[in-house]
Amino acid sequence: MSTPPKPARRSLKDLTDQERGQINRWRLVLGKSAEQSGLGISPGVGDGDCEGAEEALDFLFNERGGSSSGSNLTVPRWIDSVNELFPRQAKEVLERELVQRKGIHQLLEQPELLERIEPNVELVKTLLTHKDLLTPKTRVLARKVIDKVVNELKKKLEVRVEQAITGAVRKDKHSPRRVFKNLDLRTTLRRNLKNWNGERQKLLIDRIWFHAAEKNKRPWHVIVCVDQSGSMLESAIFSAVMASIFAELPGVKTSLVLFDTQIVDLSDKVGEPVDVLLSVQLGGGTDITRALEYCSGLVREPARTIVVLITDFYEGRSEEDLVRVVRRLVDANVRMVGLGALGYDAQPQYNRNTAGRLRKEGMDILVCTPEKLAEAMGKIITG
């Protein structure tokens, strides 16, 4: 009796999309150790998502055979990745695993630890990332921690910021720029009528007047527009602090807008940075265009408006829409400042290609400390 022939082994290119999907799901269950058995991510529909999901899972479950040394994930970036790649039910399970495996559960179960830990920006980031999991007692302590860190940052920054911006506002008021848009034509004509030359039928102008007095009455409007994505959390902390300082300066009106795919206008809370931070909703998509369109509706005097956009420049819709809205604001004479990061991180991650396109349209692109931002805004105000 003859032995039946073995079925021919199929190559990956012969698999259907459904079969590739099944292999990818098993690959995610087994982890990178599956590679030892020749089971890897199958190329095809959704393979990029599978690689991202695998990185997110390995961030939690190092025993699966993954190595965190090659991963760029941080907790805030992990939140973004999980929001994008996993359904809601799976997301809730993974977040609970994050709390248990990264040691954050100790803060939730033993609130007194918060009173023993030295408050710092990293702790604030952790508390804000998991604020929905805080118990009533922990929430009270967390608010005290955030308040202490925010007040220390504000105390550290406000002198430098006030010097840079208040000084610039005073120079702007006392030394108005002698440019055409400030020309007081009626006063200039009236006060030079004595110089009318009847023979030549010309009015000779020996002095020009500008709208210095009227200019003094109009404040500068600073609109701070902050991306709520997880990767921008540290920048959001510094943005809330800076906006609260701006709001206390004479001659400056401040608006504060948070965004993901939705818009939250917190201008009425701009002087309460802790409340602002507790309103931040991490994760979700990003619609920078929509945020800037909203900010354009807040502009009353374009030439005296500065829009400070804090984002990683990863736009969730057509980049062409974003370019158009920036071009429109710049053409209207609004000063645009884009920050890929605001803080003291030496290695910010943002979309340099998109930022470069917006720079060509007239947006100043910076990655800087709060002090450097204040200096840059001072230079804008003094012209």
Automatic annotation (TrEMBL):
<protein>
    <submittedName>
        <fullName>VWA domain-containing protein</fullName>
    </submittedName>
</protein>
<dbReference type="InterPro" id="IPR002035">
    <property type="entry name" value="VWF_A"/>
</dbReference>
<dbReference type="Pfam" id="PF05762">
    <property type="entry name" value="VWA_CoxE"/>
</dbReference>
<dbReference type="InterPro" id="IPR008912">
    <property type="entry name" value="Uncharacterised_CoxE"/>
</dbReference>
<dbReference type="InterPro" id="IPR036465">
    <property type="entry name" value="vWFA_dom_sf"/>
</dbReference>
<dbReference type="InterPro" id="IPR050458">
    <property type="entry name" value="LolB"/>
</dbReference>
<feature type="domain" description="VWFA">
    <location>
        <begin position="219"/>
        <end position="378"/>
    </location>
</feature>
